[in-house]
């Protein structure tokens, strides 16, 4: 299984390693592994209004959210403290009073 990154220039999936470099055979572009790791570490999570989020922020829910496997709903205006950011579809991990540990999508929250 190929876990190498796609070419940043032409988006080819046929990249390969050559020493400390990645190489794209389709367009000939070469880039450093260190550069690729720095790009991956620079992911920025944003709320529904484009504000950058970071671990430990407080946020507010902007839409009623159904809780999967339950008949309850997280209401608009619910404040959530001390969020943790993570990769994936639901990119915010947090605890909400009355619900416990829950994961939210950043598109349904705003920075408080």
Keyword list:
three-stranded antiparallel β-sheet, 112 residues, mainly beta, 13 strands, 1 helix
Topology:
Elements: E1 16-18, E2 21-23, E3 30-32, H1 33-41, E4 45-46, E5 52-53, E6 59-61, E7 65-66, E8 73-74, E9 79-80, E10 84-85, E11 92-96, E12 100-104, E13 109-111
Antiparallel strand pairs: 1-2, 2-3, 4-5, 6-9, 6-13, 7-8, 10-11, 11-12
Task: Explain the overall architecture.
- The chain is mainly beta.
- The protein has one helix and 13 strands.
- The chain has one helix spanning 33-41, and strands at residues 16-18, 21-23, 30-32, 45-46, 52-53, 59-61, 65-66, 73-74, 79-80, 84-85, 92-96, 100-104, 109-111.
- A three-stranded antiparallel sheet has the order 1-2-3.
- A hairpin with a 6-residue loop joins strand 2 and strand 3 (30-32).
- It starts with 15 loop residues before the first strand and ends with a strand.
- The mean pLDDT is 88.
């Amino acid at each position: 299984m190929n876990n190498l990154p796609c070419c940043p220039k032409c988006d080819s999936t046929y990249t390969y390693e050559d020493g400390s470099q990645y190489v794209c055979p389709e367009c000939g572009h070469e880039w450093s592994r260190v550069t690729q790791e720095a790009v991956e570490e620079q992911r920025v999570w944003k709320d529904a209004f484009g504000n950058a989020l970071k671990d430990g922020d407080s946020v507010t829910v902007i839409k009623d959210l159904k809780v999967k496997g339950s008949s309850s709903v997280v209401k608009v205006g619910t404040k959530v403290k001390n969020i943790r950011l993570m990769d994936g579809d639901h990119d915010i991990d947090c605890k909400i009073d009355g619900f416990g540990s829950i994961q939210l999508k950043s598109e349904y929250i705003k920075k408080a």
